[in-house]
Amino acid sequence: MSGICYLVGAGPGDLGLVTLKAKECIEKAEVLVYDALSSPELLAWAPEGCEKIYAGKRAAAHAIAQDQINDLIVEKTQAGKVVVRLKGGDPMIFGRGGEEAAELAQEGVPFEIVPGISSTIGGPCYAGIPVTHRDHCSQLTIFTGHEDPTKPGSSIDYEQIAKAPGTKVFVMGVARMREITSELITAGALPDTPIALTRWATTSRQKTLVGTLKTIADLVEETGFKSPAVAVIGDVVKEREVISWFEKRPLFGKRVVVTRTREQAGVLSQKLMALGADVIEIPTIKIDPPKDVSEFCESVRAVHTYDWLVFTSPNGVEKFFEQFYKEYRDARSIGGVKIAAIGPSTAKKIAEYRFTIDLLPEKYVAEGLVSAFEKLQIENQTVLWVKAEESRSVVSAGLTKLGAIVDECVSYQTVPATDDPTGAQERLKEEGADYITFTSGSTVENFFALGLDWPEGCQAVSIGPITSKELMKNLKQPYLEAKQSDIAGLVDVILNNQ
Fold it and tell me: In angstroms, how far is CA 433 from the centroid of its own chain?
C-alpha cells in the first residue's frame, strides 16, 4: 500500500488562518508529526486512532532532532500511512520544510506541500503594521535571526540588509536582539529606525513592543520580552499608531477559562476570542450515553404518541435526534407533538434539525419553563421530557402539578473530564486567569474536583442562578452572574465588568 506525506503549514496561531486544505489533511491523517503549535486545537481535528508524535523545537530544546524527524516521516510514509508533518507558519519559510521535502524526494516517497500563512506576514498584520506601503516602501527583506550553530560563520550579510531599501522582517531573533541591531547599525542602518516586536502574533496572547534599532535591545531586557516573536524594521512601523486593530478589542489582554465540554466549548470560546480574550479551554465534563440505553431508545421510538416534547439542553436535543433518525427515515414520523425549549441555545439546536418550537419561556431556567406552561392548558396532556441523567426534578414535578402526565427520557449523562491533552490546566496554574466561566452546576462541581488552586484576582462567572448555587458551595468570594441565562448573557456580564 502506498502512503503519502503532507508537509503542512499550520499558520501563525489564529485558528481561523489555517487553510481549508490543511484542515482536510489533518482530518485524514493516520500519523501526525507536529511542532510546538500556537493552536493545539488543530490536534483535535485528527481522526480517532491517529498516531500523534510531538517533534517540537523551542530554542535549544528539541523533542526530536531534525535528521530523526526526516527518517521518521520517510519510515511512516513507506509503511503505507497518510502522514501529516504539521509546522507552524509556512513550512518553507524558515521551517526546514525544504530539507524534509528533499529527504522525501530522495527516498522516492510521495509527498505534497501545503503552504500556510507565515508569521513574517500575518504577525505584522495583526499588530497593525503593513509590511509594504506606498508611502514608505516597495521592497521587503525577510531574514532569520537564528542560524545553524554548526556553520563556521554567519551567512547573513548585515551590510547588504542595512543598505537594502524598504521593510526588513526577521524571526527567531529575540535572544540575539542586541547583536542583530548592533550589526545593522554598524553596517549603516540609522539608529533611530523604528522597529516593532510582536510576540505570540495573531493569538489572544499577542503583545507588541515598539522602539528603535538603538533602544529595542534595552527595552527587551527591561520588559522581559520573550520569543516567539516577529520583528519588523522600517517606517511602516509608524502606521501601527493609526491602524492597530487586534490589540484594541474590548477583552484584549483578559484571560478567560471555558469549562464546557470539549464539543460545546467552541461557541463560547469563539465569542470571547472575537472580543480579544485569551481563552483557555478546560473541559470539566464530557457527555456519555445514558445508563439505560434501551429505555432511551424506546422513549424516542414512542415520541409520536405524546402531546409535548420538552428539551432542556442542546445536548439533549442532539442525542434525541441522533437516535430519532436511527429509528425513522422520515421527519414526519415525529407526529403532531409540540416542542418546548428551555432557552435560545436549545431552540437553536432544535432548528438545526429543521423543527420549530411552540414554547420558549421568558426566563431560561427550569422554573421559567414551568411558569410558561402555567399559561397553557396541559391537564391530562402527555409530556416527554428529554433530560440528562442528573437533572433536577423541577420540570417533572412542576408539570405534574399542573396535571400533565410526564415521562422522563434520559438521553445522556455528564461525567467528569480529567484529561488535559492541550496542557490547559498547566497553563492555568502557571499564568492564572481573569475569569473562569461556568455554564452548569456540573461544570462547577467537576472543576473544583480537579483540585486546581483558584487564581489570584480571578472572578467566577455563572450562567444563571442554578449554577450560582453550586458556585456558592465551592467558592467563598463574590461572583458574576449573567442576567440572561445563555451564552450571550455570559459574555455580556464579562464585557460589562470591564
Answer: 16
d(CA 256, CA 273): 9
Closest Cα partner for 113 from 130, 133, 92, 88?
92
pLDDT digits over 31-89, tens only?
999 988 767 778 889 998 999 998 876 544 556 888 899 999 999 999 999 999 999 99
CB contact at 8 A, 88 and 65: no
500556510: which residue's cell? 116
Reading phi first (left if > 0) and then psi (alpha if -120 to 50, else beta), residue 188 is in left
CATH 3.40.50.2000 fits 288-414, yes or no: no
The verdict on domain 121-247 having CATH code 3.30.950.10 is: yes
**Angle (deg, nearest 10), helices 366-374 and 394-401:** 10
Please, how many CA atoms are within 13 Å of residue 314, restricted to the half-sphere of its CB?
Answer: 19
Using CA atoms, how far apart are residues 217 and 122, in angstroms rounded to an integer? 23
DSSP 452: P
Sheet order of strands, 167-171 included? 140-144, 167-171, 229-233, 194-199, 207-212
Residue 2 three-state SS? coil
Instruction: Tell me what pLDDT residue 57 has.
Output: 63
Q: Which CATH class is domain 4-117?
A: alpha beta
Q: Is there a shared CATH topology between the 255-284+417-495 domain and the 288-414 domain?
A: yes
Q: To which residue does cell 407533538 refer?
A: 337
Encode 138-170: b = buried (16+ Cβ within 10 Å), e = exposed: eebbbbebeeeeeeeeeeeebeebbeeebbbbb
Residues forming a β-bridge with 258: 281, 437
168, 141 in Cβ contact below 8 A?
yes
Distance CA 219, CA 196 (A): 11
- Cell, residue 38: 500556537
pLDDT tens by residue, 428-484: 999 999 999 999 888 999 999 999 999 999 999 999 998 999 999 999 888 999 998
Is domain 255-284+417-495 classified as CATH 3.30.420.40?
Answer: no
Active site residues: 35, 57, 172
